[in-house]
Design a protein that fits this description.
The complex is a heterodimer.
Chain A: E1 8-19, E2 22-33, E3 37-41, H1 48-55, E4 63-68, E5 71-72, H2 77-86, E6 87-90, H3 102-112, H4 118-131, H5 147-159, E7 165-169, H6 177-192, E8 196-200, H7 204-210, E9 213-218, E10 221-226, H8 228-231, H9 240-249
Parallel strand pairs in A: 3-8, 3-9, 6-7, 7-8
Antiparallel strand pairs in A: 1-2, 1-4, 4-5, 9-10
Chain B: H1 26-34, H2 39-65, H3 70-73, H4 76-81, H5 88-112, H6 117-137, E1 145-150, E2 154-156, E3 159-161, E4 166-171, E5 176-181, H7 183-187, H8 189-193, E6 196-200, H9 201-227, H10 234-250, H11 254-257, E7 265-271, E8 277-283, E9 290-293, E10 298-306, E11 312-318, E12 323-331, E13 349-357, E14 363-364, E15 370-371, E16 374-375, E17 381-388, H12 392-431, H13 441-461, H14 471-498, H15 503-517, H16 521-535, H17 544-569, H18 573-581, H19 586-601, H20 603-616, E18 626-627, H21 628-637, H22 645-672, H23 675-678
Parallel strand pairs in B: 1-6
Antiparallel strand pairs in B: 1-11, 2-3, 4-10, 5-9, 5-11, 6-17, 7-8, 7-10, 12-13, 13-14, 15-16
The chains are: A alpha/beta, B alpha+beta.
The complex binds adenosine-5'-diphosphate and magnesium ion.
């Protein structure tokens, strides 16, 4: 593990959340250090998405504390804005803005939220497109790109806000096998560059290569946590739910 | 499977790509796939085609042979601007506005689209029609006028027409009139029946009688032919024989019955005073024609007397045409030529009678000549309409050419301004080319032009009297104001209705939307025009057109709100989440993400609404406004244009269609623009 002793940038303490009367997150507590890459794994419906969406307040938790970079998440609108500008998020369905070109998708938030000049925002957008290896698509519309390209634009769009933390919610699940690799490459680059990342993904290769820690969710609880090496080692000791899950995917 | 040692089958042979078979592509393929796919399709296609062809032929026959487009030709400016036509200043303002809009369209064409060679050729070709057609048709001879001079009343059916011997007409200085006996037409009934000309009442009766006779003769010949057949059944033979006997009783030769063209006619052309004889002469059958060049503009009197006790002679006149009477209202001018203003601040108007020559725009305001204290008859020609079966030449010279000539006066300058706007912007883009990410300069010009347009138009229009607004102009104003104002209101209502965290706003919006949608537009119009003054008497001072605008705006905003709401609902929640995750606030999310996508998604619905708004403005007639449809109503109610409903309403329908179609066309262009092209919008 790279930075075990660094100060935690995300602190979740006994976080609880309900949808109506349905208890989705149950006493979720976790601390994530700066530059740490955390992989979140678990069966479908176990609350992984809900968990990471609580971190940038796309979902509201009802009990417990979430503190991001020293800012507690509550109903204070200014805190929410501050936290969102520190956190980038990448969605399973890309969620690019279809009415804007690739370049406009990337420059919109820096210009609107960070009040950057168009020239500045576009210069940086082109840098990011270089980084995700699709500078030639800058003036196309999302509808004209392949899924893999779209997801890389989505990553560039999130990075344009210069976030300290990146959240990935199953970024490769909607992609054809041929395209998964190109997105994972970009994510690995990002991890190596020292970005703090929380990734919901079932890509074992990715987890083992760049992951620092694996969190296993089941029915709204973290039932197991460990390094990728031990977590994916079937011979090691595991929670029964973990073992059942690993049996399915390995 | 039997064994896992069995190898996979490998197909090495490549199948080369070929063109699609000819029967599947091109016109042939299209027809096969769409018109003749099954037996049933083929039958439908044939039936529909036959129906279409017969409808088109019928329409053309009617247009050329019978339709009388004078109600349209004579009322173009009335149809365009209504009562505003009385004020020259208002006309200047309306023209200015039209040209400005045309210029704006030209600028936009360059900014957001591209006119290729084909576009220019089309434009030039269509514009040329407005020049070439009138130029060509004006070289065609005008049809003559047939006037009966005689002493026998002509009977046709239930009418009996005594020839009139003195009538008045108008002419221009330098025009030559030609008077002669209509030798050919009066020769026999066949010729008489096929006259194609203007005619006085007696000539009209003669033509109708001759037609009936020709029809009877034809039937007689037919009966004779049938009877000559030996094998005819006895009953059949009896029927035909009695029909023949009945017919022969009635059959007579019209030209003989009225002693047509058997006697000379003494003619005189008198000056408008009714006394000075300008020229006189004797016209004899087969003899010389009398020609005379008119000395000045104005009224003349023609006086003719047949030189026999019992005879009718048909005269063929050239240069003598039907005269229309028209009542005109215009701004009253004082001695210095300035408009006179009443104490209440309104410009005064005056009404007077004009006389207009049917075949052109020649107009006189001089009083009708009088003899022995009586107006000389000026309605010699039946309903001032054309008599007989009009042939193609007469149709071209009387209706087709003048239509293009008159509409050309509006179309040509407008097209010119569109082209000017386009070319100026092209020049601008050439001289100052944009630095790549920045948009073309013409686009910026177009944006600001249209942004400023409502204010400029308001400034131009404000100088006209809203009480006089009418015609297509009023229809446009109501539509434009309705669209421009209802758009922001409708969007706000839609956003308000979705604001779940602001319940007061939400329920207010729901209330407004549902209330307005729950009542018909007519009711809203009535409320605005009748009930508002009850709320505050000062409101009755607001012109009706403005009150109608308010009503239309509110009405259309409610429907627009629902359309926009539908669009907002179609935006996947992921869009808002992504925007929020980027740190955008709710206002930014709405303005930059949801609204643009929602509006784009509902363009077809919005344009549909604009089109129906455009047509629904015709309801304002009910609250006393003279929009395009109402003006048409008013025109066909005038004695002069009685019986010309079909022509008038057809023209009005064509106007509505042209502009609705243009709106639909622009909407398709907008749908296809920007990301629409990427999404491959289905049209
Ligand atoms: N908006 C919602 N309302 C009610 N239930 C929800 C909502 N979103 C998710 N859930 C439920 O919460 C549970 C956790 O969902 P989610 O976090 O998306 O799971 P995961 O991402 O692990 O598949 C699921 O059972 C899901 O049905
Ligand atoms: Mg999920």
């Amino acid at each position: 593990m790279k930075t075990t002793n660094a100060e935690a940038i995300i602190v979740c303490n006994k976080v609880n959340k309900w949808y109506g009367d349905f208890h989705v997150l149950r006493d979720v507590s976790v601390q994530i250090a700066q530059k740490e890459v955390v992989v979140v794994i678990g069966p479908s419906g176990s609350g992984k998405s809900t968990f990471i969406r609580c971190i940038n307040r796309l979902e509201e938790h009802q009990e417990g504390d979430i503190i991001v970079d020293g800012i507690p998440l509550g109903n204070d609108v200014r805190n929410i804005a501050a936290i969102r500008s520190e956190i980038g998020m990448v969605f399973q369905q890309f969620n690019l803005f279809p009415h804007l070109t690739v370049l406009q998708n990337i420059t919109l938030a820096p210009m609107q939220v960070r009040r950057q000049s168009r020239a500045e925002a576009e210069r940086k957008a082109m840098e990011l497109l270089e980084r995700v290896r699709i500078p030639e698509q800058a003036n196309k519309y999302p509808g004209q790109l392949s899924g893999g390209q779209q997801q890389r634009v989505a990553i560039a769009r999130a990075l344009a806000m210069e976030p300290k933390i990146m959240l990935f919610d199953e970024p490769t699940s909607a992609l054809d096998p041929e395209m998964i690799k190109e997105v994972l490459e970009v994510m690995k680059d990002l991890a190596r560059s020292g970005m703090t990342m929380i990734c919901v993904t079932h890509e074992m290769g990715f987890a083992q290569e760049v992951g620092d820690r694996v969190l296993f969710f089941d029915q709204g609880r973290i039932v197991e946590e460990g390094t990728p090496e031990t977590f994916f080692d079937l011979s090691a000791e595991h929670h029964e739910r973990t073992r059942a899950f690993l049996d399915q995917i390995l | 499977m039997s064994s896992n040692s069995q190898p996979t089958t490998i197909y090495q042979q490549d199948v080369p790509r070929r063109h699609a078979p000819i029967t599947a592509t091109g016109v042939l393929g299209w027809m096969r796939a769409n018109l003749f796919r099954t037996w049933f399709d083929s039958i439908l296609t044939v039936v529909a085609t036959l129906f279409l062809i017969s409808a088109i032929i019928g329409f053309i026959e009617w247009t050329v042979g019978a339709a009388n487009w004078y109600s349209v030709l004579r009322n173009l400016s009335n149809l365009m601007v209504g009562s505003l036509q009385a004020s020259p200043e208002a006309l200047v303002r309306v023209n200015l506005m039209t040209l400005l809009l045309a210029f704006g369209i030209g600028v936009s064409l360059r900014a957001w689209s591209r006119v290729g060679l084909r576009g220019w050729l089309w434009t030039a070709g269509v514009s040329a029609l407005f020049v070439v057609i009138p130029a060509l048709t004006s070289t065609l001879p005008l049809p003559p006028s047939m006037v009966t001079s005689g002493s026998i009343a002509v009977v046709s059916g239930s009418v009996s027409e005594t020839p009139i011997s003195t009538f008045t007409f108008i002419g221009r200085a330098g025009e030559t009139i030609r008077l002669a006996v209509a030798d050919e037409a009066g020769q026999d009934d066949q010729n008489l029946a096929s006259i194609s000309a203007f005619g006085d009442r007696a000539a009209d009766a003669l033509i109708n009688a001759a037609r009936a006779q020709v029809a009877a003769q034809t039937r007689l010949a037919e009966i004779e032919r049938l009877l000559s057949d030996e094998s005819l059944a006895a009953g059949q033979r009896a029927l035909l024989t009695s029909e023949r006997d009945n017919l022969t009783e009635d059959v007579e030769v019209i030209s003989e019955r009225y002693a047509l063209n058997s006697a000379d006619v003494a003619v005189r052309v008198l000056a408008a005073d009714g006394e000075t004889v300008l020229v006189e002469g004797l016209l004899s059958p087969g003899g010389e024609a009398l020609t005379y060049t008119l000395p000045e503009d104005g009224w003349y009197i023609l006086d003719h007397a047949v030189q026999a006790e019992e005879a009718n002679t048909l005269l063929q006149l050239q240069g003598v045409y039907p005269v229309l009477e028209r009542s005109v209202t215009r701004t009253r001018l004082d001695a210095d030529g300035n408009p006179m203003v009443s104490r209440t601040g309104q410009t005064q108007t005056e009404s007077f009678i004009q006389h207009v020559r049917l075949t052109d725009d020649f107009t006189t305001e001089a009083a009708v000549p009088r003899i022995d204290g009586e107006d000389v008859t000026r309605y010699l020609f039946v309903n001032n309409q054309y008599r007989g079966i009009r042939d193609l030449t007469d149709y071209l010279v009387l209706h087709f050419g003048p239509f293009f000539e008159r509409t050309g006066r509006a179309v040509l300058p407008s097209v010119g301004l569109v082209a000017l706007g386009y070319l100026l912007m092209q020049l601008l883009d050439r001289v100052l080319p944009p630095v790549p990410p920045a948009p073309k300069l013409s686009r910026r010009v177009a944006f600001w032009l249209w942004f400023a347009m409502p204010f400029v138009v308001y400034f131009i229009i404000a100088g006209t009297d809203a009480r006089n607004w009418g015609g297509l102009f009023l229809t446009f104003l109501l539509t434009a104001v309705g669209i421009v104002l209802s758009f922001p209101i409708g969007v706000l209502l839609a956003l308000g209705r979705r604001a779940d965290d602001l319940p007061v706003v939400k329920y207010f919006c729901i209330l407004v939307i549902e209330f307005v949608r729950g009542v018909p537009l007519i009711t809203v119009l009535f409320l605005a025009s009748l009930a508002l003054p009850l709320v505050n008497p000062a409101l009755s001072e607001v012109p009706g057109a403005v009150r109608a605008m308010v009503a239309i705006t509110i009405f259309s905003a409610a429907y627009l709100a629902e359309n926009v709401r539908g669009g907002l609902q179609s935006i996947p929640p992921g869009q808002v989440e992504a925007a929020k995750a980027l740190g955008m606030n709710p206002v930014q999310v709405t303005l930059r993400i949801t609204l643009p996508q929602a509006l784009r998604a509902v363009i077809p619905a919005l344009v549909g609404q604009c089109i129906s708004l455009f047509k629904d403005t015709s309801l304002v007639a009910i609250v006393g406004l003279a929009d395009l449809t109402r003006i048409a109503d008013i025109i066909v109610a005038q004695a002069e244009y009685i019986g010309l409903r079909r022509e008038t309403y057809l023209f009005v329908a064509a106007l509505y269609f042209i502009f609705s179609f243009a709106m639909a066309y622009v909407s398709r262009k907008i749908e296809l623009s920007g990301s629409g092209a990427a999404r491959q919008v289905q049209l």
